[in-house]
Amino acid sequence: MTTQLSAADQVAQGRAARARVRRRDHAIFEPAPDRPNPIDLLEQQAETRVPELVPIRYGRMLVSPFAFFRGAALVMAQDLATTPASGLNVQACGDAHMSNFGVFASPERHLIFDVNDFDETLPGPWEWDVKRLAASLAIAGRDRGFSPAERRTAVTAAAEMYRSAMRGFASMGTMDVWYAHLDVDDVMARFGSQLTASGRKRTQEELTKARTRDSLQAFNKLTAVVDGRRRIISDPPLIVPVEELLSEGDATEFMANIRGLLRAYRRTLSSERRVLLDRFQLVQMARKVVGVGSVGTRAWILLMEGRDNGEPLFLQAKEAQSSVLEGLVGKSEFGNCGQRVVVGQRLMQAVSDVFLGWDRVLGLDAQVRDFYVRQLRDWKGSADVTIMQPAGMAAYARLCGWTLARGHARSGNRQAIAAYLGAGPAFDDAIAVFAETYADQNERDYEQLRQAVADGKITAQTGL
Q: What's the CA gap between 120 and 116, in Å, rounded?
């Protein structure tokens, strides 16, 4: 077993870290003289993705500087590796921008707010997650036309909440930290007064909508009856049934591979969830384009039906590639990238999808690829950044800051991190400066993408 430091020694460890990296040093971001070209980094990622889908990724990133930022986790990871860090590592999300937080259903059917994307998760510096969240708030605020003061309010709200929450978690028992979560009803009671009347109404409408986003809603939206059978509706290139991608023989063989994946993936579930999965059978599958940064990775939706009554269930099998952090903090201890994602998610999230598991399968290109599996929709919802007002963004930033601190407190040395952060605003102020500086860099990178498309160096497919 790992030797545990006393609480006093952990606090001393955190305070000693200030001697190595002052809190105000986190304001610093200066592009390295040998900084990689961001377009080259994106093109490197494209080499392992589905070629015909890569232009869709670039098209989505062209929508705005914030959309570019969402797809540029690798670019920022390279930059973060040049910034000061305290040396206190946690299970990092790796891509903790504001749109990667949201609501979803707990197994007890409560609506929970949490981090909801872990494709890049890996042990690493806690500061990197905080800085990516902070930069996303500044960039989104610019997209919305917020003033510098309004953007600073949102960024400092996230940093201050992260700091104060971590101090709170440092004083709690380990089990209390592990059980801590944000129930949406509690969130509205706690933060609802910080929104305008129209903001509260819009938020309640979005939460009501989220509760309708389940397998039945996906079933009605994504399928139709064809010759008396439910089939996934083809909508190329965004949704393409496997029988349209392959010849009949190859499609049959690939479906057999996927059934093998389901059998092997089943072993990564707990016993009672295997029983639940066994009550459904695979009917059809289709390739689906998802997200911004994930576009081009292989993602499949699996239409399942209850063996007894035809009850619909949609699972998503999403390819897991190496984390953007791996070249910077070391390779994952897990040989399967899907397992890396699932373990990281279970470490950081208060509750996780009942069908969350992993496996690997032989792909269409005859390459062995890692996947993780979860429900396609289970009351999932996220904030619409394009309509946020300043007060709403600040309230949302606090939710994200608390949630990120809780995720880090579960896996990291919360007493040391809390002692490092301290009770004053030094860290908050530094993060506010960093966020604006990085927003400037992001705009320059975005313009490089626009120019590369204009010059014909890369192809972007817009409107999808």
A: 12
